[in-house]
Amino acid sequence: MIEDEARGPIGGVREEGVDRRTAAESVERELVMMFRRARNLSTAVAAHVHPDLDPASYSLLLMVDDAGPLRGMDVADRTGLDKSTVSRQIATLVDLDLLERVPDPDDGRARRIQLSDLGRERLAQVREERRKHLHGQFASWTTQDLKELARLLSKLNAMM
Question: In this predicted model, what pLDDT tens digit does every residue of 96-128 receive, in sequence order?
Fold first, then answer.
């Protein structure tokens, strides 16, 4: 057998390529499953926040909660959605009393959106329930496994 100082037997290079491709395909399969389940979870959680809330608007609600008061244009920029779509979502969230429009302190003519008291309360409740659920789901995982998962998810999020 021919040896390569850096890689060992030359046949090992080919096996590494096949192994890497198989591993990448497994990652892709698991990501598809995770995204599908996340979409289903998002639908269920959105309904828990408000029965008339759709998952896309729930995502917008989370963004406003994380970012604080935003202009509609900022929301469109952050989501990559067009202004009319964002405007409709914001209007729906205001109608559901989950968001409110407030004056923009930097521009008296403009308005920002922020969570309403009801929106803040409902999101806090849902997040606490989700946190408890996940705590239970991860109960059998070691602390090291959780740290490794967090590290790898962070790495994945950085490249997306």
Answer: 999 999 999 888 888 999 999 999 999 999 999
Q: Kind and range of the H or E element at 102?
A: strand 99-104
CB atoms within 10 A of CB 83: 12
Contact 45, 103 (CB under 8 A): no
Are 68 and 101 in contact by the 8 Å Cβ rule? The answer is no
Tens digit of pLDDT for each residue in 2-22? 445 545 555 566 778 889 999
Question: Which stretches of 50-96 are DSSP H helices?
Answer: 55-67, 72-79, 83-95
Does the pTM surpass 0.70? The reply is yes
